[in-house]
Input
Amino acid sequence: MTTTLGRKPRVLATRKMMPDVEQRLQRDYEAVLNESDTPPSMAECLKAAEGKDAIVITSFEKFGPEFIPALSPSVRIIATHSVGYDHLSVPQAKARGLALTNTPDVLTDATADISMLLLLGAARGASWGDRMVRENRWGTPTLVSPLGFDVSGKRLGIFGLGRIGQAVARRAKGFGMELHYHSRNPVADDLASGARYHASFEGMLPFCDFLSINSASTPETRGIINERTIALLPPNAIIVNAARGDIVDDAALIAALKSGRLAAAGLDVFKGEPEINPGYRSLENVFLLPHLGSATPGTRSAMGHRALDNLDAFFRGDRPKDLLTGD
Output
């Protein structure tokens, strides 16, 4: 690969990636890989980045606002192996002239599949049903218990009708759900799958038998699922979250699940993961997954190649397709 450096750029990968991605990285760059996949501390990452031209990082490295200002001046670009970039500060990157890219598009379908899995699993008791069988608690069947909740024909509100939210809408339409959504702006009719737009998040909530969270984590959305907004949902509503954990106030959600104000929840993401609020673990009416949204071989490979596509463009002197720090 021809670069503006006159040599192969030096690239640090903070975590192990799919084999085909690592092979490409080693072929085209002077790469330092994390062969053990041991999560680095911020200090370890900063030391390893000394003298490097680029870093391929992941959303698992939540180093905080101290990270970018402390980076070696040799680093010119950070390519995050994720669509979300709330673990990195775009303003800080801009301030020091650092390019920052992400990997949108390629994980849309995998994450939308997980949203639907959460919705179905929470509604139909996949978690407690699985435990009943494994723990030999499956007794004589009755007509009145245990029972889940219907999905077909129910109302689904989608918070964030971006690429992933649109893919959720297409899937939910196949279940005959009545679709509603709130985003900062309405999307084109041909992308909304017939969903009704609500100009305010709070205004949508009374129409949500199910609420699917598919928005980005921003100062405006963090903690937006709280005691006040949960109270606006219909009785026995179900919340699913495949976006970011900090959008949810854990204490409020746990209290609503315990009290029966909410029927159930399905969660793939958590604030502070993998250290989650322990209150979730004892609840029968919550379906929990360990952040599996993009966890398929094809999707993780596509994400890695998208990150390297951005590096390739940058070191050719072109604008990366997924540049977050552009004008």
About this structure: The domain at 108-288 is CATH 3.40.50.720 (Rossmann fold). The chain has two domains: 10-106+296-316, 108-288. The mean pLDDT is 96. The first helix runs from residue 19 to 28.
